[in-house]
Automatic annotation (TrEMBL):
<feature type="transmembrane region" description="Helical">
    <location>
        <begin position="50"/>
        <end position="71"/>
    </location>
</feature>
<keyword id="KW-0472">Membrane</keyword>
<feature type="transmembrane region" description="Helical">
    <location>
        <begin position="77"/>
        <end position="96"/>
    </location>
</feature>
<feature type="transmembrane region" description="Helical">
    <location>
        <begin position="131"/>
        <end position="151"/>
    </location>
</feature>
<keyword id="KW-1133">Transmembrane helix</keyword>
<protein>
    <submittedName>
        <fullName>Uncharacterized protein</fullName>
    </submittedName>
</protein>
<feature type="transmembrane region" description="Helical">
    <location>
        <begin position="221"/>
        <end position="249"/>
    </location>
</feature>
<feature type="transmembrane region" description="Helical">
    <location>
        <begin position="157"/>
        <end position="177"/>
    </location>
</feature>
<keyword id="KW-0812">Transmembrane</keyword>
Length: 267
């Protein structure tokens, strides 16, 4: 049975400890000790990441429902409901980020000492230029698709494009909130191994949020099939080119463990 751990509440569960051990092994940190602090930090990140995925799925389903309820025509009430959904998404993501940061702060308060030469990685170490460029191009491409649909004479397509733009803005805002949280997250480490694990967590979270599921899914869900053939071809090309670029970046970039050691060595 778990016992209290100062500042962290209940001790990490046996499942969390096993999962932390597997995580260390996957990242070649075999000599690093599995601690309740590390297990708790990894567990809260898994749960927060699941919460983000659920909220983004709700955004996709909610936008489809709004389009259906409005009869593919601008209606005040469904559009207000969509705006409320996007606002709720931002509030929910802020609460998830606060939860993760709170666990980190409590974990840091339990450490008897801090790692020497503690670092605070910037966006280039956490995300990297290739991933940052990919995110910017993906968001810009999705916005361009939605903007081009606004110029179609069909009122149904224009209405769908408005819904798409609102949802894309909400999804992009969530991405910015997550990246801001990653960059401001406190460093929690007491030795070189735990410092490496801290940086790996940041890099993994950053790479996870670059997966543009909303930007790729929403144009297909909302506008594909209603817009002209040229728009459909552009949407398919956008997804295929983006997928190819994403795979190429993942194959060329070093693993999160290697990137973390490089970031630490550069400081």
């Amino acid at each position: 049975m778990s016992t209290p751990h100062p500042g962290l509440g209940p001790l990490a569960s046996p499942a969390d400890l096993r999962s932390a051990g597997d995580w260390l092994t996957r990242h070649d940190l075999i000599g690093t000790r599995v601690t309740p602090v590390l297990a708790s930090r990894l567990a809260v990140r898994r749960r927060a990441r699941l919460g983000t995925h659920i909220m983004l799925a709700a955004l996709i389903m909610g936008s489809s429902l709004v389009a259906a309820l409005s009869g593919f025509r601008p209606q005040p009430l469904p559009m207000l409901a969509l705006a409320a959904l996007v606002a709720g998404l931002l509030v929910g993501q802020s609460l998830l980020d606060w939860w993760v940061r709170r666990v980190d702060q409590r974990a840091g308060a339990t450490l008897s000492r801090r790692a020497a030469h503690s670092i605070q990685p910037g966006w280039q170490e956490v995300l990297g230029r290739p991933y940052a460029a990919f995110v910017a191009a993906t968001v810009a491409g999705a916005m361009a698709l939605a903007g081009s649909a606004l110029g179609v004479p069909d009122p149904t397509v224009r209405h769908m494009a408005v819904v798409l733009l609102i949802c894309l803005l909400g999804g992009s805002a969530v991405m910015v909130l997550q990246l801001r949280h990653l960059l401001r997250r406190p460093v929690v480490a007491e030795d070189e191994e735990s410092l490496t694990a801290d940086v790996i967590m940041r890099i993994e979270d950053a790479r996870e949020l670059t997966m543009p599921s909303v930007q790729w899914s929403l144009p297909m869900v909302l506008v594909f099939g209603f817009a002209p053939a040229w728009w459909g071809a552009a949407a398919v090309a956008y997804v295929l080119v983006g997928l190819g670029a994403f795979v190429a970046i993942q194959r060329r970039m070093p693993s999160s463990a290697v990137a973390a050691r490089q970031a630490m060595g550069a400081r």
